[in-house]
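Worked Example 4.2. Consider the chain below.
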Amino acid sequence: MTATYTQPKHEVKDLSLAPLGRQRIEWAGREMPVLRQIRDRFAAEKPLAGIRLVACCHVTTETANLAIALKAAGADSLLIASNPLSTQDDVAACLVADYGIPVFAIKGEDAETYSRHVRIALDHRPNVIIDDGSDVVATLIQERQHQIADLIGTTEETTTGIVRLRAMFRDGVLTFPAINVNDADTKHFFDNRYGTGQSTLDGIIRATNILLAGKTIVVAGYGWCGKGVALRARGMGANVIVTEIDPTKAIEAIMDGFRVMPMSEAAAQGDLFITVTGNKHVIRNEHFDVMKDGAIVCNSGHFDIEIDLKALGAKATEVRTVRNFTEEYRLKNGKSIVVIGEGRLVNLAAAEGHPSAVMDMSFANQALGCEYLVKNKGKLEPGLHSIPVEVDKEIARLKLQAMGVNLDTLTPDQIEYMNSWTSGT
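Applying the procedure from the previous section yields the following structure tokens:
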């Protein structure tokens, strides 16, 4: 007789960790007043009632507050991790034990487990997908074409995920609407810049306890994440070098006061290297050859491909763990190179990710993006759609209100002037 497979209700490390997780989720919630107001409205209106929703996110205290808001909205939700090292096991346990949300996430899970969790998520037959890097959407398109009919749409909040969605649309396989949360002003101006900037350095310091002042730090990429990292590194007293492929961003970095050069030159000068490009093998074989003894490399881009660790491993005679989430590669030439967080997102692998205050706005966009998809079911064309400007502005208004900040308002005379073409100087 063939045994019948029963899908597990959850996969977390240890449900006994739930009390600590609840305490930490509540602490994060103190810094998330915008999402709290949305959750209260959701609880009253139930805009996602009857909607099967899958979220592939970093399972952190901030994500937990989003998951709780989505459940308040009436969604039948399931949560999986978007990164093997970003899961906070106590948070995952709390969501299962205290909120009844199915979670499939264990810190340090291997690639096979992660892929299995993606397929478990698709077994939920989602109507809405919240994705972080577009792995769930890509797997749906490649392996579960028959389930696309169930899908209302998806939301995506990473630069990497948006790049992948655009490629899907160009190839004609993105046949449903996708909400581009990443490019909302209240997301990338704050989450990418201030969140990544602070949390990346937090992860590096926790993993190594090095002094940043006086170090030469090489930041690969000067997008919003790179700007935030470079700004915070300079604020800590570091000498910052930026590498770029985009001439406009390179000029901006120079005018912001940073040195700009190719990685081939920067590799010999840097003490610490941080990649935030979204591309692959930004630091590779020829760069390792000229790095200083003891150089530290880490990544704050979405996937663990920006540093060519396979090439580094081939050069090593020994790899040993020297601190939590920190490995030293001893090379054949006698030098060593230190890698933090296995080349994965250093701010989540070695720390706790973005501060709750910035994730408040990012996850407000996610929650309202899901509501927008459901309200406009059947009305949106396939492809990428921006968060409506009025929603973006409302999130900013709510955040300012929570911070106790007031704005000026236009006088009738000013409104008339701004709407007239006959008034000159």
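Residues 1-5 have pLDDT under 50 and may be disordered. The chain has two domains: 15-187+354-403, 196-349. Compare this with Example 4.1 before moving on.
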